[in-house]
Amino acid sequence: MTRAGWVASALLTAGIAGPATAQQLAVTEVRIDSIGSLTELARAGFEVASVRTVSGIDYALVVTTAMQRADLGIRGFALRLEPVVPAQSPQVFRTPSRIDSLLTSLAATRANVFVDTIGQSYEGRPIVAVKIGTPDDAGSRPNALFIATHHAREWISTEMALRLVVWLADSLAAVPGGQALLDSRDIWVVPVLNPDGYAQTFTTERLWRKNRRPNADGTVGVDLNRNYPAFWGRDEIGSSNVPGAETFRGTGPASEPEVAAMIGFHVRHPPDVAISYHSYTDLVLYPYGHASGVLAPDETIFRALAGNGLSPSIIDRLPEAARAFYHAGPSWQLYPTNGEYTEWAYRAHGTIAFTVELTSGCCVGGAAYGFEFPDDSTAVARVFADNLPFALALLDAAGDLEAARGPGGGMVGGPAVETLWPSLRIVGPPRSATLPVVLRVAFDETIVGARADSLNRGRARWRWQAPTNDLQLGSEIGVPAFGLRTSLIHREGAEDSLTAWTGWRRDSTLAFEGRFAWLSERDTLTSPVLDLSAMTDPHLAFWTRHAGSLFLPDRRGRVEFSSDAGTTWTPVALIEGAGGDWYPVRVSLPEPAQRARVRFIAENMSWLIDGLHLFGTLPQVRPVAPASVVSVSENPVRSDRVFLSWAPVGGQARVSLLTFTGELVFRATVPAQDGRVSWDLTNRNGVPVSDGAYVVVVELSTEILRRRLFVARGR
Questions:
Q1: For an engineered disulfide with 350, which of 101, 127, 459, 651 has Cβ 3.0 to 4.6 Å away?
Q2: What whole-number distance in Å separates Cα of residue 583 and Cα of residue 581?
Q3: 629-644 confidence digits (pLDDT tens)
Q4: 135 burial level (CB within 10 Å; 0-12, 13-18, 19+)
Q5: Own/partner pairs, 629-633, CB within 8 angstroms, 24+ separation
Q6: 470 with 641: CB under 8 angstroms?
Q7: Are 672 and 652 in contact (CB under 8 A)?
Q8: Quick one: pLDDT at residue 38?
Q9: Distance CA 372, CA 665 (A)
Q10: Which of 154, 159, 357, 418 is catalytic?
């Protein structure tokens, strides 16, 4: 059916226009003044399908009834309807009866296709699952699951799943290694999880989203992708408690028979990997999604398979596509969700599960088609071909998640240190809840216990965390359980007004570490020249939050690296989407360099950076002070303690610190064989010293050592 052609002026005055009934649906453009307006729409129960910029003004696209449009007008939103898309009589997209005929024919004519019913919908329709490969189930074979049509109006997702069934049955065996995948995997496809709603889109309402359960207030439908038990009903942004809302979560977790059927399927056939197909926006999303800034312990596996903005796993080759490739990241980068399938599957069964939001493309006759993907065989075939490599990568990964590799070339890698400061985060294979970590500062060695809570215990990886606020530059961190060793080489926290980093402004309202963070919307933050030549495996890590939107890909942040002091730059990371809470980013740097620099470029996105540090592996396992030299753990000193060390000798060592005018501020006598002493940056009366330059004097039995020390805490 076509959309009614309401005019903007009528909508703005009454919220209702044209011959629509109270429940007739239409795509409405809602003017938004800021990214925060998207959150306001989510709280009102609207699913934002996309954001469009027209003449410099942003409009969120939402599906509404006339009554909902009136409510938006009362809330102060300015509205207009999308241009009408010409009506189409589906030829490529299949009605429910044509799907039944296709699957019946495949089961009758293909020896490797088997059709089963896993449950019934609210109105009693069968929910069909198709198995491709061998007829039996074996516990030794990993399960791979592909689901479509949680949301009824997303026909392109249905067609993606159906074409996947046909391709797997007819073509997989002919590609290298394909027959081995068929023999060693149990492959399942559920083309239509929401058969009642899907039927509704062909008979009554093309834009119907939910299932068809009658609600107590006279409205109809529950959003099946907000009805799963994981984090169900956590807040009113990720789902709605209003029955008429597009994201209504139902009366309780798994209240809907369609969701109960999927839960039962997982109990019988727990998938190792899964894709839930949706439309539209060019995205590959993965857990977590219930809260901004929360990262899954298996993120290295998710990221390897899904790719990133520099090495994407899915290319969009439709001529009108808004993006050249599918953005990949945690689901909260789009918006928070709760009761959603992939998060539940990951939490309940450890399934490495992805939401793929298929291409939005653009236009038919100048009108954006959105959910009403063109009934064009060439365009549909293009979407399928673009997405097939990612589906095959998941099939391959199901056999060995640690060896997973995405179409973009992403690899999981071994255990790793994610970030060192101001908290330590380590990922690796499952172990006990507490992981011993060795911290060495100069000649001082301590053992801390990093811990993993339930959110940080995944399928193949766990994450352990411990606070390390007092970690000194040059500190060595070792994780004996994984054979890991790295050292903190450089850190910045925006605290020092004399910092050698340039650009951006310091903000004191949202700092993550200390009192300040860097903040910008359209500027570049650039490091001084850094010597990374002595290390291997150099990494940059920082904590960030940002106010972007995946609907607006031109608003983003870029991280770049230079090995020649800034003459040339290489992009190493892209930061996109919503990030309302602090979270860490770890970036591998291309190569060790003597004259390295890094920079952060904000492109029309409010972006905060804090807790920035560089780390890597230094040649020696344990720092050894060379003879006749006083070494310091940090210079200039920006923390509250510094360690002074020297080559151990016999006798006693007297250590003195003096101002440049000769005033004694610290003195200690220790056994010279200990080779080190610490100073807490207070004077002999226990009062913190001022910033400035000091002289260190170490009197040994054999010689007297001297050096300068700078204190630059910005206090």
A1: 459
A2: 6
A3: 888 888 888 888 888 9
A4: exposed
A5: 629/705, 629/707, 630/696, 630/698, 630/705, 630/706, 630/707, 631/442, 632/696, 632/707, 632/709, 633/441, 633/442, 633/472, 633/473, 633/474, 633/475
A6: yes
A7: yes
A8: 85
A9: 75
A10: 357
